[in-house]
Amino acid sequence: MTASKSCTIKLLNKNYDIKCPEHETANLQKAAAKLNEQLLQNKKKFKQLDDFQNLVLASLHISHELISCQKQQEQQRHQVTQFINSLENKINQVVNGNPFAEPQTEG
């Protein structure tokens, strides 16, 4: 069983005590700092928002960033996979004694 630890985070000048696994404390602090930064930016930019609206907007913004990063990571993963497959084909051609054959591409 993972030991839980109480951790205090600060959002919009309010402290919140949250329990989390001890090994996740640093990640929780980083996540809270990112959320707080976005909340403060929203508060400056959209003065008419109440705290709940600000929280929803910040959550959507951070979620959008996450989805964009995941999409970019998936594209990079696909490019690396294609590159590895191309190298593997070239190596196989050389090993099989056909170094000048046209590389096969997978679509």
Helix and strand arrangement:
Elements: E1 4-11, E2 14-21, H1 25-45, H2 51-95
Antiparallel strand pairs: 1-2
What does this structure look like?
It is built from 2 helices and 2 strands, in the order E-E-H-H. The protein has 107 residues and is an alpha+beta fold. The protein has one domain: Double Stranded RNA Binding Domain (2-Layer Sandwich). A two-stranded antiparallel sheet has the order 1-2.
Shape from CA axes? Answer: elongated
Strand arrangement across the biggest beta sheet: 1-2
State the helix count: 2
CATH architecture: 2-Layer Sandwich
CATH top level is Alpha Beta
Protein name: Cell division protein ZapA
InterPro entries: Cell_div_ZapA-like (IPR007838), Cell_div_ZapA-like_sf (IPR036192), Cell_div_ZapA_N (IPR042233)
Subunit structure: Homodimer. Interacts with FtsZ.
Keywords: Cell cycle, Cell division, Coiled coil, Cytoplasm, Septation
